[in-house]
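hey so i finally got around to running the thing on that chain from the lab meeting. sorry it took forever, my laptop kept dying and i had to restart like 3 times. anyway pasting the input first so we r on the same page abt which one it is
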Amino acid sequence: MLTFGLEARLCRTGGCRRRRSRMRRRIPALVVLFFFAGAVPLQARAEKNVVYGMYSGLALLMDIYYPEKANGYGVILIAGSGWHMPLAYHAGALKDRVEGQDVLRTLTEAGYTVFTINHRAAPRFRYPDAVEDARRAVRFIRHHAREYSIDPEQIGGIGGSSGGHLVSMLGTLDDQSDPNDPDLVNRQSSRLRCVVTLAAPSDLSRIKTEAGLMAVTSFVGVPLRSRNPKAEEYKKYAAASPLTHVSADDAPFLLLHGDADKTVPFEQSELMRAALERAGVEVKLVRISGGGHGANFEGATNPPDFLGEMVGWLDRHLGVSVSSDQAK
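ok and heres what got predicted. didnt touch it at all, straight out
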């Protein structure tokens, strides 16, 4: 979730040093409240800390969760963090934030093999590093699909907040696999068959909320001072926005968003829906009335079964038989 992941950056601005010790006490308690919260027992076997890539000696890790009754399909699940993760011995792993939580449990109970990842993040790394890591992860999953007993052509993606942004990029970016690359993983496609986002940013240049703006500026690496399309910072914001990359061959999108979100406004999903519809891409936007930017869209009045919507979308677009035990 963007708000919590970047709150510590407030201390970098003038006059905020007095808040540093107080914020250090607050942040460990806050970071567990990301999207996909709600601890429940998880009935799935986990393979932890699989290295899916290396960057200058830094291992990029994923965890793999195997369901009791596999349906033969895989999903990459990226947690929200505001694209922010400190490099420190005491820092928790991004991929661990989904462990024992509702979305992961729901997916494994539906028969999906789930892959959760760490990725390079601010403040040390900037765009496009996290996007490239997400693409590498999908290529790695596809390359090893036989080992994981999943269909390499039918991989879905789910993400909340900044994680939703990353899976949106996976669903819209052109495939840049290289059939001649000496690294066999890089010969694989990084495209997804379908995408589910929860409160995801789509046009980074339009996010003006305090927490959202800090997160975006940190992720892109420069503030947006000009809306001139020829300005270098404008070009960078556009390149980092899924909206820019929408085309007719994109994956189908399910957009879940609370209309009381004060970090990533509901408008962001409306913009994405409009762009996908113009391109002729299948898209569904579920408006969660009163839902905020947080675990299970807190504050929602009569919230829909968004977990059921999520599984139904995956089942339909990945080809899972609705009559199978796993799809029930």
